[in-house]
Every structure is written in C-alpha cells, then in structure tokens.
Amino acid sequence: MKLKGNIVDIHNQRIFKGEVTFKEGKISSIIEKEHDFAHYILPGFVDAHIHIESSMLVPSEFAREAVKHGTVATVSDPHEIANVLGVEGVKFMIENGKQVPFKFNFGAPSCVPATTFESAGANINSDDIKALLQNPDIKYLAEMMNYPGVLFDDNEVVQKITWAKNFNKPIDGHVPGITGDDITKYIAAGISTDHECFTEAEALEKLQKGMKILIREGSAAKNFEALIGLASKHFENMMFCSDDKHPDDLMIGHINQLCFRAVAKGLDVFKALQMACINPVKHYGLDVGLLRVGDSADCIVVEDLTQFKTLQTFINGELIFDNGKVLIDSVGIKTPNQFNCKKKEASDFIVEASNENIRVIEALEGQLVTNEIMAKPKKENGNWVSNTDTDILKMTVVNRYQEKNPALAFIKNFGLKEGAIASSVAHDSHNIIAVGVSDEAICKAVNLIIKNKGGICAVSSSEEKILALPVAGIMSDKDGKTVAKAYAELDKMAKQLGSTLNAPYMTLSFMALLVIPSLKLSDKGLFCGKTFQFTSLKVD
User: Fold this and answer.
1) 52 contacts 74 by C-beta, under 8 angstroms
2) Is 517 exposed, middle or buried (0-12, 13-18, 19+ CB in 10 A)?
3) Dihedral angle sign, alpha carbons of residues 469, 470, 474, 478
4) pTM value?
5) Region of poorest pLDDT, from 85-89, 375-379, 446-450
6) In 286-303, which positions are buried (b, 16+ CB within 10 angstroms) versus exposed (e)?
7) Reduced to 3 states, what is the DSSP secondary structure of residue 399?
8) How far apart are alpha carbons 143 and 191 in whole angstroms?
9) pLDDT of 274-313, one tens digit each?
C-alpha cells in the first residue's frame, strides 16, 4: 500500500511531500515525491498513562473510540480491575485487548490494594508481580502509589521494584506534591515518571532530578495549563496522558486535543508531537512504529497541524479508521464481577451529633487533591444531616465485597439541592460511593448500585437513572456510543439536581482515593492523606 501526503519527520524536524509504502505491516520505504495532497502523515498518538477502565469501556471498545482521534497505542495501568479481581482482572484486560488491532501496553499493578486502609477485592503481592513481569504482555511496573512504602523501605514495595529492575522494565511513579529529599529518594529507587504534578515548580524540580513528567489532562484532573509552559525547554523529557477519560469526553477527543492546545499556545509543533508520539514509545520500549523505514506501519493522516483532525488511522499497516468510519468490529464481552453486599436501610446512614464542628472534605474543581476544612454541620433530631444551604452534604463509602456498616463523612462543593448520586467506580478499591441531600436519597442510590451489581446512578424523589457496569462493577458490556449517551444523561441529571462540578461522577470517584491528599473517605473511615492515617470526623 502507498500513502501520499505531507510527511512529518519529527526526528529531524522537517516536513516534506512524499510517499510511504507499507508491506506486510511494516514501512518498506519513505520517499520524497511531489504531489498536490494537503493532508499530513505522522506517527500515531500514544497516551502515556491511562486507566482504560475509567472510560467505562472494555479495551476492545475503548480502541474503537480512540482510533477516531489518531491514537494507536496506550500505556495502560489495569489497576482498577485488579483491585476488584486481582491478577485474573489483568488477564481479562490483556485478552480482551488482543481481540482488536490496537496496541495496548499493560503494566503490572504495583499497589493492589493501594493501601491497607481500605477494603479491596484482591491482593497482588511481590510474587504476583514477579509472575506478571515475566509475561511479555506486561511492559512495565505500574504507578507506585505507595510512596510512603518507598520512602520507608517497605519490604514488599522494595521487592516489587527489585523485580521490575530484574526484568529491565520501567517503573512508573505517583507522587503528588512530594519534593525535596523525599522526591530525591523516590527517584533514586528507580522510579522514572510522574503524572501527578499540579504546579510548575513541582514538575520542574522533578525534571531537574531526572524524572520524566507526564502532562495529564483527564476528565477530572487537569494539569495542562499548569505544566505546558515547561514543554518548550523540557519536551524531550515530557509526555501527554489522560490518566482517566470518561466516555463522553473520549467521544470528543484524546491526545490530539492536547497537541491542538499546545500548538495554539505557541509550542513548536515538532516538540508537541515528540511528546505525543515519540517519547512514550522510547521510554517504555513499545512495539509502536515512529514513521521510519522498517517500523511497524502505525501512522495517521490528519487534516492539518493545528486542529489535528484525524482522517485515517493505520496500525500494522491495516486501515482501522477511515474518514469517520471505524473499521474495527465489536467483539463478545465477558462480565466477570465481584459484588457481595446486601441492600441497605436509610437508618444505616445516620450520624449521631455530638461536638459543634466536624472535618469536611472540600472537593476542588479539576483536581484529585482535596482540602480539609472545619465546619458546623446541620443538626436534626440529634443527628448530623446534609445542609443544602451551606453545601455540606453527607457522603458514604459502602464496602461491596462483604457486609459491613457504611463509612460516613461530609463533603463540600458537590452542590446537590435534591436527590443523590452514587457510583461503584470509586478509586482505588471500587467500593460504592455516594453523596446526597438526605439519608433516604443516599440509601436509594446505594441500593440501585447494589441491585445492578455495579454502575453509576442518580436518583430524585421522582426519577432514577443508572448506567449498569457489569464488568467488575466498573465497565460496561455495551459499545462506546451507547455508554457515552447514558453517561451524558446521568451527568445532565446530576447537574439538574444541583451539582456545580464540571464532572461530578469523575470527581466523586476520587473522593475515596486515599493516596491523594488531603482528606478522603474509605470504607473503613475518614483518612488524612498527609499523615497517612485515619482521622476523626469530630473535632474535639
């Protein structure tokens, strides 16, 4: 096959008219040749860090959406399904992904469970990590979220890192806000990347100390604006990633959007494309072509180098997206799951009042980090209840793996004026998380999740909606368009109920993520991410 157009040679920072020839999935020749085509040929985009599960699509369906935007490969941490199903969940992702012509590159989840302060559905120890890393389908040790374990030389953490070094596989990091001597030690352990920087100063220090920095722009955490200013000077050691991408956002765009925004801000197009196409392949040693003779024919045709609208996507020389049409068929989807809790009663969510003030989680727009604030809650009949006037609402995390009492806390900035929203997508252990204006509404939402053995939902006094997620309680068995439509309807309903957040469900899903400061809620109780220990709801 021959592909003609303006060829973008990122390595040599030049563009020339030419012809690319594919043979048996490889690029057999690239020659300069005059022609009148206006479009551009370049290597495919690579998402340098993503949890496929957060799209609520299985890998095969994720691929069918991503190729529309010129993505040919991902560096994928199957951490989410591993917390539910363990090693078998990782195997499910690999096998499902192999059924389509897309280059998923899965890592060995390093922190399952992420902490000992929550209940997960599985455990992956250092022996499991060794077995996973021996698998050629596992390309790296996924994000080491247990940074206290690294800093204090925890035996299991050290052994997992040692196995990655033994098999010569990169080690991904996860260290939000960690600087100084602590980050120096973390890097010295052999950890090479971080996608959690939320200030330029933090990212610059890590770059100067030898880390690769990923600019993350997902559905909840958005760090592009804070970090893109570093790219002009440090582009060789930076990459683009989404981390978590909800289905409606994936319909709109992917890594191509970050290239568009970077170029619009004045970043040289070759630097932007090196971050989007070249650096992930080289850092992780991926089997992904970079538009050179002898490489796999993994390339895309885009309309221009400003908008990066994808016209065609090729993987291993196979045309899999062509002018609006996806040429990958849907495949049959299995639905492994683990849901072992019973329905709840409204009385399970009562919080008896005592002191005047409590600790409240303050959710922040576009961030995974939260603040810890003190507030005086609303009291009714001797109990603390949600207060829509001050926007301090009750939230809960319910253990879905075994029958336990719900954990309860209060949160600010969700803005609900009626009803409740809930989800079994709750990082990292994926228990049920909910927030609402009353105990009855919270209970109704939680029970709707339990009834469907997973999903995201919204309830009011007159209506209830749910997107069922039967694959591990975190992914759908439906196609991307169906899931995106259902998710968009739920997002709309949550905002009609009063939520002021841009992505209320994505934000909700991170309110149980203990490894991100400051204050979060696990199924075992309120947790301080700064001291890395439980704390009391009540302030003495």
Assistant:
1) yes
2) buried
3) negative
4) 0.94
5) 375-379
6) bebbbbeeebbbbbbbbe
7) coil
8) 9
9) 999 999 999 999 999 999 999 999 999 999 999 999 999 9
